[in-house]
Amino acid sequence: MITYLSNNSEIIWAALRQHIALALIPVVLGFLLALPIGYLGVRFPWLYHPLVNVAGVLYSIPSLALFVFLPVVLGTKILSPLNIVVALTIYTVALLARTVADGLRSVDRLVTESATAMGYRRFRRLIDVELPVALPVILAGLRVATVSNISLVSVGALIGIGGLGQLFTRGFQLFYIQPILVGIILSVLLAGVADLIIVLIQRAVTPWTRFQGGRA
Amino acid sequence: MSRLRTAGAAIAGLALTLGLTACGGGSDPLSNDDTGSSAAPGTITVGSANFAESELLAEIYSQALEAKGVTVKRQFNIGARELYLKALQDGSIDLLPEYNGALLSALSSGGAPEGVSKPEDVLGALKKVLPSGTEVLEQSPAEDKDTLTVTADTASKYSLKTIDDLKPVAKDLVIGAGPEWQERYQGLKGLKEVYGIEFKEFKPLDAGGPLTVNALVKNQIQVGNIFSTDSSIVTNKFVVLEDTKSLYLAENIIPLIRTTANNPTVTGALNAVSAKLTTENLTSTLAKVQVDKQDTAAVAKGWLTENGLA
Amino acid sequence: MNLTYLFDPAHWDFSTGSIPQLIVSHLWYVLLALVLGTIIALPVGLFIGHTGRGSFIAINAGNAGRSLPTLGLLMLMVTLLGLGLLPVLIALTVLVIPPILTSAYAGLRTLDHSVVDAARGVGMRPMQVLFRVELPMALPVLMSGFRSAALQVVATATVAASVGLGGLGRLLIDGLAVNDYSRVLAGAIVVAVLAVLLDLILALAQRWIVSPGVRASK
Fold first, then answer.
1. Is B29 within a domain?
2. Signal peptide location in the record (chain B) (predicted)?
3. Which stretches of chain B score pLDDT less than 70?
């Protein structure tokens, strides 16, 4: 394995960089899109169930199918990494919109009512009170989305753009386990590091959760 | 309130970091196409099919071009011909190694025209059917044909020497090849039309790769599509069935390129590769990748050095 | 959107490679993985949840499992073991274990402690507490974990086709290989419909097996 690593460090490094970009850009985009969508599901309660159902269906479309289909829908080139980014953004939104809605819904009525009594208007109340209270739930969802995106990127290798997934197909075509193992290990490590970063962010921005005896 | 600002700042910071990561090292995965203009002028995107030899040849092309100062972007392992030709046409890739007969067969409806089997004839016919905006350069003497291959056991059990010999027994045999064989003329269609052979079952595996070899060895399939340069034929003492009716044409290796990406430097570099490439040196070079598991880039470099091209 | 492949009657007979046959092999992979995954994950999850020992494993199993790329695992297994059902089964079972394990653990941990204490108080032995009180009350959480495992495995079982095996992924991989988008679309639609139907069936099953008393209190 060490010789494989040192002989192929350039390829592996490039694959890793591509993997990071392809997995994490959708996390950021998806998060930014999911916030307003999730909020709509709370602001207009009749929207909540359709939202959850649509998200469920979107999530059950196989990633490979989405990677292949987006060029037809978007008019992008078939090998464009944009297809992967958009597909994973869709999954992220599907996962997070619901989490955001659930997080906001879980905010204790007493809290929102007190805020209203203190003179908060709807938007300020949302930003200053409800979102921070819902943040632990939302960030937990973000962890799931990030980790599953990192694992999903590799499927793109079946159409030639898959970050570390390319190490899988390369190894598989030669029946050679070294590249596959390296790809799996790096992918898991990457997911672990990304997860850890979100946990640290969560600790930094929601210190109150630590005083309730709950786990961060 | 300030907490949330912190959160916002943290997220913005994360986004920024990601943006920077994405742009770092000049290999921004989002910038290579879509507008077509974003790739620096003179950059050639080299593609390859999803099997080891195609990737090796693509790497040889890439390094030969780089040796002449051309900037190359590698987009290997795309898939089967049906897919990568589309990528070539939409400009996702500019260049890739092809096989003249298989390409001709793929581009002509109903298979290659009859009576065309010699390399020059194939090339002549091929030039007439190339998709607009693409061209082929000099073809090399190196050939890699599709074959129908069986194990020595199967060959002696059914006394098989030629593809024709399969006709009476094919109904009991399972054939394995890349999934694209279901629809290809140089696949199940041609076997039926030219030889009148229909197999009991078709197993979609890989393009002459280890899955097919493995399935043959384990008798999960009895007939496999293996490329003639594949070292597994020798190592496993496989029997290649003779193609008496020339379903598989001359399969000389030839660069297929988008006209807009071509220029005299590119043509010169690739023609020099084609001139030095032979079936023998390709077979032995490929074995370094397939058998010795050496890194493709290093093997390609070795070949270019040996042949005075790098 | 071209639906010709999906609605062509020739693809709906029961021959090799037809849609019904692919659905059956797809569901077979899904079922085997779910059964095998449950057999492995449920006892472990219940043990950790019941005793509180090894909570660290249960909390982290979810994310660790999700981070394992199924495609890589599958290709590794096929490279090591050759073609066959076993590699797919291993890769998909690994996918199924984390959500079931985590939800079994979470189901027991989030129970109202006074109920468990009461069960002990009336003289139930540990196994009785687990199977008569804790497990029935944890069922809603457990089932939601099982349902998300099922959804994931239905969508992911498509990767089996990339290593030469069957299931609905064949429509995606073959469609891609022969540049037949109508076939890819058929595959995507059938997989999504299958996932929705399966989730519906599991939701009904959940209603049926969860005790009305537990449901009312939730």
1. no
2. 1-22
3. 1-41, 110-111
Inter-chain CB proximity C83 and B180 less than 8 Å: no
Same domain, B183 and B225: yes
Say what the pTM is.
0.86
If asked whether residues B90 and B157 sit together in one domain, one would say no
- Domain of C200: which CATH number? 1.10.3720.10
CB contact under 8 A, A180 and C72: yes
- Candidates B238, B228, B210; CA nearest to B279 is B228
Count structural domains, chain C.
1
Q: Are strands B174-177 and B223-227 parallel, antiparallel or unpaired?
A: parallel
Confidence of residue A139 (pLDDT cuts 50, 70, 90): very high
Residues B150, B187, single domain; the answer is yes
Same domain? For B103 and B153 the reply is: no
**What are the structural domains, with CATH classification, of chain A?**
2-206 (1.10.3720.10)
> Min CA distance, C106 vs chain A (Å)?
13
The CATH number linked to B132 is 3.40.190.10
Question: Any CB–CB contact under 8 A between C58 and chain A?
Answer: no
Report the number of distinct structural domains present in chain B: 2
Please give the order of strands across the beta sheet that includes B174-177.
Answer: B201-204, B174-177, B223-227, B146-150, B239-241
pLDDT in tens, A152-186: 999 999 988 889 999 999 899 888 999 999 999 99
Residues of A in contact with C160 (CB under 8 A): none
Q: Does C114 touch chain B (CB under 8 A)?
A: no
Residues of A in contact with B24 (CB under 8 A): 17
Tally of helices (H runs) and strands (E runs) in chain C: 11, 0
Q: Across chain C, which distance is largest between two alpha carbons, in Å?
A: 67
Tell me the residue range of the domain where C75 lies: 4-217
Of C64, B215, B202, nearest to B191 by C-alpha is: B202
Please give the residue range of the domain that contains residue B196.
Answer: 146-241
Give how far C91 is from chain B: nearest CA, Å.
18
What's the confidence (pLDDT) of residue B185?
86
- What distance in Å separates residue A8's CA from the closest CA in chain C? 18
Contact A17 B79 (CB under 8 A): no
* ipTM over 0.95 threshold: no
